Amino acid sequence: MGGTRQLTPLVTLSLQAGPQFSTDGSAGAYANASLSYEYKVADRLVRASVAYVHSEGFVVGQAGPTTTDTFSSSIAFSPSRSLLVSVGTTTSRFSAGTSSSISSTTTYGATANASYQIFSWLTARTSYSFSYQEQSAGHIPHNVVLVGLDISYPFRFDR
């Protein structure tokens, strides 16, 4: 159950909560909350957002169900009409186990993205993401750089 409410012309709040059922018949809690704020800087629209998600599921390599809590934030803006730039952060904590043996893993991440519309049908994209995973078996840094072109063609399905 949930909903989205525009609190002011610039602020939007979204909330979702309810049970989450797994294939073994157990039920857990699910919650998702986000808040976004739009404002202008030098006549350019900027969108900032924060979010929290709590869920239960399974993680490869861990026995039993895992509880996940994720906090994220992002900011996006268009310095020019064809260019969109965004940056973001995320923190996730994965907990699994029984009352006698609980294991947890924490990840931290940062992202930077840019896209530039070359033509109406061609967009260039690039992104960089860094994540750092803390766990009992050691720490794992991870870097990913992506570069790509998106080619699109408008289709009409009403004829």
Unreliable residue stretches: none
- What string gives the helices and strands in order? EEEEEEEEE
Structural class: mainly beta
Percent of residues in helices comes to under 10%
Range of strand content:
over 45%
Total helix count?
0
User: From the alpha-carbon coordinates, what is the Rg to the nearest angstrom?
Assistant: 20 Å
Please report the total strand number as a whole number. Answer: 9
Largest sheet: 9 strands, antiparallel
Mean pLDDT: 88
Question: What is the overall shape?
Answer: globular
Separation of the first and last Cα atoms: 37 Å
Strand order of the largest sheet: 1-2-3-4-5-6-7-8-9
Q: How would you characterize this protein structure?
A:
- By secondary structure, this protein is mainly β.
- Helix content is 0%, strand content 74%.
- The protein has strands spanning 2-6, 11-21, 27-41, 44-57, 66-77, 83-97, 102-119, 122-135, 138-151.
- It is globular.
How would you briefly describe this protein structure?
The protein is mainly beta and 159 residues long. The chain is 0% helix and 74% strand. It has strands spanning 2-6, 11-21, 27-41, 44-57, 66-77, 83-97, 102-119, 122-135, 138-151.
Helices and strands in order:
Blueprint: E1 2-6, E2 11-21, E3 27-41, E4 44-57, E5 66-77, E6 83-97, E7 102-119, E8 122-135, E9 138-151
Antiparallel strand pairs: 1-2, 2-3, 3-4, 4-5, 5-6, 6-7, 7-8, 8-9
Describe the structure using short key phrases.
about 160 residues, mainly beta, nine-stranded antiparallel beta sheet, globular
